[in-house]
Amino acid sequence: MKYNEYTFPREFNYSKLDEKRVFMLIDMQPEYLICVKPEKMNQMLKNQLNVLSYCSNHDIPVIVLEYEEKGKTLETLTDIIRYIPRHSFLTKDMNNGFTNPNLIKQLKRWNVEEVYLMGVNASLCVKQTAEGVLENGFSIATAEKVIGNMGNFFSDLSKDWYNSNGIYLED
User: Fold this and answer.
1) Position 116 confidence tier, pLDDT thresholds 50, 70, 90
2) Does residue 40 lie within any of the structural domains?
């Protein structure tokens, strides 16, 4: 399968665009994932692993956001992330990852323009971090196959918000 079959609606052959892009993995910690339906979890994890593999092969930076005191990101994901030349693990103490001032510093250091969001909780932590991305002048993109919510609840309002504020690819 090709990379763009699981993620975003842009052409992902390596290009100069890759130099302005970062993937952000949010709250993929066991405590949050136990509430995600198993079939959604398996699909989301498979697609995230494919995205991370692409990032590793093309030196596209990845930022991992972890909620403080909620454990570490799944080892399955971190096993790939450690091979990505430009990666950063940051903690946050609120839903919005921009509560950590090092996040904006890292994005600027890497000269980022676009932030591609992956992780959980799509209607809360991912969305509030996406709002922070936009407030700081970057653009956003995400796909239903790489974000999840607790249970099956992902409201049309949240989908509409992602569609209105960036690129959102549905299943």
Assistant:
1) very high
2) yes
Q: What is the pLDDT of residues 135-146, one digit of tens each?
A: 999 999 998 899
The candidate with the shortest Cα–Cα distance to 166, out of 134, 136, 144, is: 134
How many domains, the chain?
1
pTM above 0.85, yes or no: yes
Q: What CATH number corresponds to the domain at position 72?
A: 3.40.50.850
CA dihedral 163, 14, 49, 148 (to 10 degrees): 0
Q: What is the 3-state secondary structure (H, E, C) of the chain?
A: CCHHHCCCCCCCCCCHHHHHEEEEEECCCHHHHCCECHHHHHHHHHHHHHHHHHHHHHCCCEEEEEECCCCCCCHHHHHHHCCCCCEEEEEECCCCHHHCHHHHHHHHHCCCCEEEEEEECCCCHHHHHHHHHHHCCCEEEEEEEEEECCECCCCHHHHHHHHHHCEEECC
Half-sphere exposure of 67 (CA within 13 A, CB side): 19
